[in-house]
Amino acid sequence: MLLRLLFVLLIALNIAVGAWLLLGQNDTHAHLPTDPGVNKLHLLSELPPPAASVTSSASATNVAAATPAQSSSAANPLSAQPSTNTLSYACMALGPFATQEDLRVARNALEPQVQRMRARQEQTTQSRGWWVYLPATSSHAAALAEARQLAAKNIQDYFVISGAGDDQNTVSLGLFKDPANARKRRDQIAEAGFPAQMSERTETVPEYWLDLIPVDSAHFDWRSRVHDTAIGSHSTGCF
């Protein structure tokens, strides 16, 4: 009888311990849906917003914050750009210089105020004066005969051109710098009965130019350094 009672008590004790182990633990352990170390499941509504949404929100916030500053800059463009003292420059040409030495002197004088220079040579036609003459005859003897006729009428200062060339057998009556003096000589010979003519004599000569870019055209005074009054200036293409 006693053993049966002890057996019943043990069974009751086991039932009580099992009930305590099942129902008497902390809620945290009692309601775990997963094993330890396994991530817990969440509903979509419980998830945080995606990174793109966060970034977009941040960008929108930055744009909203930057808008007043940009509007202020647009309203006052001068304040948005740093003020600088911009130097003005223009390309120009000086010349013509008669010799390369004149060009070299001017180049050395202007170098401190110039950021770039170049020298160039051009060919130009230059007047040598106005020539009064009798047209060429068919022979040298005929030209000498005209010269004797001039002497007979007290006309002096003539010269018979001999040898080869376009002016062969021509009687020269003088070369004049002033065309007015040349016309006066021509008319004098024509009144004496001779077919006097006049023409301009030219030659091709070199001339020298200096192209330059001043450091600051607005304050560039080349006249203070180049004192030749025959030298001029004009704008030219940049190089």
What are the SSEs and their pairings?
Layout lengths: L1 H22 L3 H4 L20 H25 L1 H4 L11 E6 L2 H11 L3 E21 L5 H13 L6 E3 L8 E7 L2 H13 L5 E18 L17 E4 L4
Antiparallel strand pairs: 1-5, 1-6, 2-4, 2-5, 3-4
Protein name: SPOR domain-containing protein
GO molecular function: peptidoglycan binding
InterPro entries: SPOR-like_dom, SPOR-like_sf
Notes on the structure:
- The protein has a 6-stranded antiparallel beta sheet, covered by helices on one side.
- Among the domains are: 92-124 and 205-235, 2-Layer Sandwich (Alpha-Beta Plaits), CATH 3.30.70; 125-203, Alpha-Beta Plaits (2-Layer Sandwich).
- The chain has 239 residues and is an alpha+beta fold.
- It contains 7 helices and 6 strands.
- Strand 3 (159-161) and strand 4 (170-176) form a beta hairpin.
The major sheet is characterized as: 6 strands, antiparallel
Overall CATH architecture of one domain? 2-Layer Sandwich
The structural class is alpha+beta
Overall 3D form: rod-shaped
Short description:
The protein is an alpha+beta fold. The chain is built from seven helices and six strands.
Name a few traits of the molecule.
alpha+beta; SPOR-like_sf; Alpha-Beta Plaits; SPOR-like_dom; SPOR domain-containing protein; 7 helices; 239 residues; rod-shaped; peptidoglycan binding
